[in-house]
């Protein structure tokens, strides 16, 4: 591979193709784009009306001929056509609409992605004008992005809670010792909140409202001060718009099941880790990244239930894309850790 002189003019990109958000890192520039993974398609002529932020603003508000599509589900491509169009749009936007650019692309994917799902991601990126595609496990990318010493002979554990999946990874000597991807994460929490509000308050709310409640009130252990907020929606029976009040205690109850599943997955990971590396993790702790790391008191809850120190990554929302971006400058490491290496 010719690096050298061409590297200075490199168009290489790192992409965190998330269920909820897609982040793009351009070599030499840092993060150039972070937008929701949503495409608004015109169902009459199959044309794209909007992508990312503009498309998210349309969710739940589109006329009949426009469908707001989320191409990613549980961290993998669910709608091949929409994913390809979304990637194409993001790659062009990252390059300032310059044409004829064929970047090398590093993409973070869940650790338990199947061969078929890998091919779908790779094919979508190639059709969106990528010249070469490297897939890396999100857990590994998040660990690099969070600054963990992945090349050292000691155990590092990262728990990356995204929109569609929670990736748990134990790394030593730049290799993955244990990795598990559970399909319980931010979106599951949003659904749990929407179901609770419907069941207990007779109110139908959209996914944007559920996400807002999670951000404002979500917690994994009791808060010092009680918090509450007004929620607008539609009454289940009467069909009329109405407003109800919910508090942090109610939402903590609604989130208990998904949070317990994440805690259990972390405990399973610690149990499956070889004793020497488990001892390292007991000393150094585990690191939380992804949007789910921002749930209040989740670090305290994990600390309590695992007996292991817990830290939150410096920039949890960007850990995966920052880690994948670092690999653009270290092709030796990238070749070592990419899935089915070229």
Show the helix and strand layout.
Elements: H1 4-8, E1 13-17, E2 21-26, E3 30-36, E4 39-42, E5 47-51, H2 53-58, E6 66-69, E7 72-73, E8 76-77, H3 80-94, E9 104-109, H4 115-127, E10 132-137, H5 138-145, E11 156-161, E12 166-172, E13 175-182, H6 186-201, E14 203-204, H7 207-217, E15 228-235, E16 241-247, H8 248-272, H9 275-284, E17 286-289, H10 298-306, E18 310-312, H11 319-327, H12 331-337
Parallel strand pairs: 1-9, 9-10, 11-17, 17-18
Antiparallel strand pairs: 1-2, 2-3, 4-5, 4-6, 7-8, 11-12, 12-13, 14-15, 15-16
- How much of the sequence lies in strands comes to 25-35%
Assembly type: single chain
Write down the overall mean pLDDT: 90
Major sheet attributes: 5 strands, mixed
Numbering strands along the chain, what is their spatial order in the largest sheet? 3-2-1-9-10
SSE arrangement, N to C? HEEEEEHEEEHEHEHEEEHEHEEHHEHEHH
Question: Could you name the key traits of this structure?
Answer:
alpha+beta; Nucleotidyltransferase, domain 5; Actin, Chain A, domain 4; 5-stranded mixed β-sheet; 12 helices; 39% helix; flat
């Amino acid at each position: 591979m010719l690096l050298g002189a061409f590297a200075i003019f490199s168009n290489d990109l790192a992409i965190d193709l998330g269920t909820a958000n897609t982040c793009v890192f351009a070599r030499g520039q840092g993060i150039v784009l972070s937008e929701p993974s949503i495409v608004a398609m015109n169902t009459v002529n199959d044309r794209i009306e909007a992508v990312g932020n503009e498309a998210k603003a349309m969710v739940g508000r589109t006329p009949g001929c426009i469908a707001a599509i989320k191409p990613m589900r549980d961290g993998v491509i669910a709608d091949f056509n929409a994913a390809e169009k979304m990637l194409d749009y993001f790659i062009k936007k990252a390059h300032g609409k310059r044409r004829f650019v064929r970047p090398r692309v590093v993409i973070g994917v869940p650790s338990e992605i199947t061969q078929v799902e890998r091919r779908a991601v790779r094919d979508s990126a190639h059709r969106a004008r990528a010249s070469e595609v490297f897939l890396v496990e999100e857990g590994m990318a998040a660990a690099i992005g969070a600054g963990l010493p992945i090349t050292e002979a000691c155990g590092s554990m990262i728990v990356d809670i995204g929109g569609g999946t929670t990736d748990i990874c134990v790394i030593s000597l730049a290799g993955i010792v244990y990795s598990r991807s559970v399909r319980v994460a931010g979106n599951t929490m949003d659904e749990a909140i929407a179901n609770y509000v419907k069941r207990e308050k007779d109110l139908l709310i959209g996914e944007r409202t559920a996400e807002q409640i999670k951000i404002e009130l979500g917690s994994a252990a009791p808060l010092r001060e009680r918090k509450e907020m007004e929620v607008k929606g539609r009454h289940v029976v009467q069909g009329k718009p109405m407003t109800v009040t919910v508090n942090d205690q109610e939402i903590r109850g609604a989130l208990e099941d998904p949070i317990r599943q994440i805690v259990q997955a972390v405990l399973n990971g610690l149990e499956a880790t070889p004793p020497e590396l488990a001892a390292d993790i007991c000393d150094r702790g585990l690191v939380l990244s992804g949007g789910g790391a921002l749930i209040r008191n989740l670090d305290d809850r994990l600390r309590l239930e695992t007996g292991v120190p817990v830290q939150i990554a410096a920039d949890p929302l960007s850990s995966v894309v920052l880690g994948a971006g670092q690999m653009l400058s270290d092709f030796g490491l990238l070749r070592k850790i990419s899935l089915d290496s070229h």
